[in-house]
Structure formats: structure tokens, C-alpha cells
Batch of 2 targets.
Target 1
Amino acid sequence: MSERPPSRAAMVAGAIGLAAFAVIAYTPAMAHVAWSLSPVTSPAPADAIVVLGAGAAPDGTLSDQSLRRLVGGLVLFRRGLAPRVILMGPGYQGGPVEARLRSSLAGDLGVPASALIVEGGGLTTRHEASLAAGHMRELGGRRVLLVTGSHHMPRARLLFERAGLEVVPAPVVEVSPSTQRPEGRLDLARALLQEAFARAYYRLAGYL
């Protein structure tokens, strides 16, 4: 029995897929998208710095994104832009709480415990915004330096503002738009696509 040749629709779909792969992996198209999403701002004094969660492994290893956000937040603190740092991040798959791991590392780097607020309950960005707003009410302020990935910042900023906070964006680069490597460009496209789906879901759910 002879095999049937691919249908015309399948051939067209395959050609489109290959073309899209080539554009994503071998052109700066995704870099332009990433740059358009990155807010151009300068850090300014605030009542607190909020560092959003980004993941940790069950063995207690912080993800690369988590470390980048933590370092970004601690740099702002060392510059004297806020007296408190709210560290976010829950436990994952029964592993240690990300916020506590970050607090321990911050302490090792010389940040006093009195300057740190450890919040390990935020399971989503919306949940983190609500929890951060609660901490800010206790502190008596509402202006925050928000630290998260540059592609994640637009959605996070809207959610924090809807929670009643005044947001000064302080994005960190998690996947460089300047990469020339095809695998790096694919990683960037994956991050942008995940964020696009998340933003669409939040809009459909009425959160934005």
C-alpha cells in the first residue's frame, strides 16, 4: 500500500513553520519586540523595593532569573533608593521557599535582616501584587521600585498599580535581546511568547 503524499495544507503549514523558525533564530526580529516592551526609566527613591519571584530548584538552587532579580534589587538598596526590600517567591514542588533562599543570600552579602521582608506566599504575579500591597500598608508607604524581568514588567506594573501601588519600574535583563546566537534568540522568543499568553489570559480574566 503506497503512502499518501502530504496534503497541500500540511505542506503550507510546514513551510510557514520553517519560515517562522528562520526569522526567529536568524534575524533580530524578536530583539525588536523585546526592546519595544522594555520601559525606559531611571530608578528613583521609593518606600520599598519589591523583587518578584522567578523560581528555585528543589535542591535550593535559585534560578538564573531569580538571581538576576535579586542582584538587581540589592543594587538598588545599596544605592540608598529605599530602606526596605520585599523578597517574593514561594516554595516549588516541595522544595525550599525561594524568598527565604534569597533572604539568606542577601544576608551573606551584608544586607541587614531588619531591611528585609520575606514573603513566600505569592503563587502568581497578581497574588504577589496583593501581598506586596499589604506589606506596604503596614510600612506606611505606597511607592515601590518593582524589580522583575524586562519582558514581564508591563504586566507586572499594571497589576501592582491595580493593587493601589505607585510603581517605579526597575527591570532586569533575563534574556538578552542583543544575543546573536540562534539558541539565544529562540530562548528570547519562548519568553516573549509565554508572557504574551499570560497577558492574554489576565485580560480575558479581567485582571488587567
Note: The domain at 48-169 is CATH 3.40.50.620 (Rossmann fold).
Target 2
Amino acid sequence: MRQATDVPSITAAQMAEVDRIMTHDLGVDLLQMMENDGRHLADLARRRLLDGDASGQHIVVLAGLGGNGGGALCGARRLHGWGAHVQVLLAGEEGALAPATGRQLDILRRLGIPILGAAAAGDLGRSALVIDGLIGYGLAGAPRGALADLILWANGHGAPILALDVPSGLDATTGAIHEPAMRATATTI
């Protein structure tokens, strides 16, 4: 019998190879993968952390500049479609976004979803949920700058935190917990 702690895992390098196989060998483009991540993220948020109903719930989505941020932005769009009041805190300058992530942000902007800089975190009121789409499996050392600031804000906010793939600040290969690291309530897998 499998123990509750026996969770299958792969290293960050192995996950990067999975992504490469998906895009280059199988022809599944990055936008498709982001859509799948976002759909799963939003569904898990609604079912597990919002008692089955996102309508009227205040949700803050923390988005990094790469693919993890793009998946979180897709989840934000779905939660918005289910009636949630979503606000996005972007961890950097829009000009630095990966192209697919920038496309996801543009969709949110067209929908009228508020997109704020990391510095606006202190001005936000309480929320029912915080979504961590800051770093993902590509972590290289301890989070710094706006990434670190947003992790510290989320950890002190008091709302449950749902991390996409890997809590920001956790090394996906070694399991090392950097300072700061997101204290996620749940993580998508």
C-alpha cells in the first residue's frame, strides 16, 4: 500500500524536458499548456478553497513574468468568468513578460480585470484566496525584489494560498525551502 507521503516527483530539469517534448516533439504549444494549467488551477480553487462557488469571491492572483505567471493569468480569467472579483499583481514590468504570458495579460486587460504592480499589494483589502503564479519549477536561488515582497505579503495576508505547480521559493528538484518561500495551503499537480 502506498503511504500518504509517497508522492511521485520529478526534477526541474525533467519537467523542462517534459515541456520541451510537449512543444517540440508533440506540437502542443505553450498557450495550450497554459490553458490546461489555468483551467485546472481555477477548478481546484473553486472546488477546494471556495466551497464550490467563486461568484462574488475576492481573489488576488500573483503573476510572475514566465510560464507560471501565464498559467495563473488563465486561471484568473476562468475565475472571473465564474463571477469572482479578481485582481492581478504583476511581479515585474509588462515589457519583460514572456510572449505567451503577455498574451494572457492582454486578454485580462480586455476583460477589464484590474492589473496592478507589486507595490499595490499593501493597498489591497482582504481576499478569499491568493493564487501563487510567481515562479514555478524554474526557481534559481532565493526569491528577491518584487518576487520576495509578494511572497512575504501573501504569507501575511491571512487568506488561503493556492500555488500553481510549486510554491514560490521551494526548489522543485531538491526540496530546499528558500527564504522567503510561499506557505501554500494547496498546490496543483
Note: The chain is about 40% helix and 15% strand.
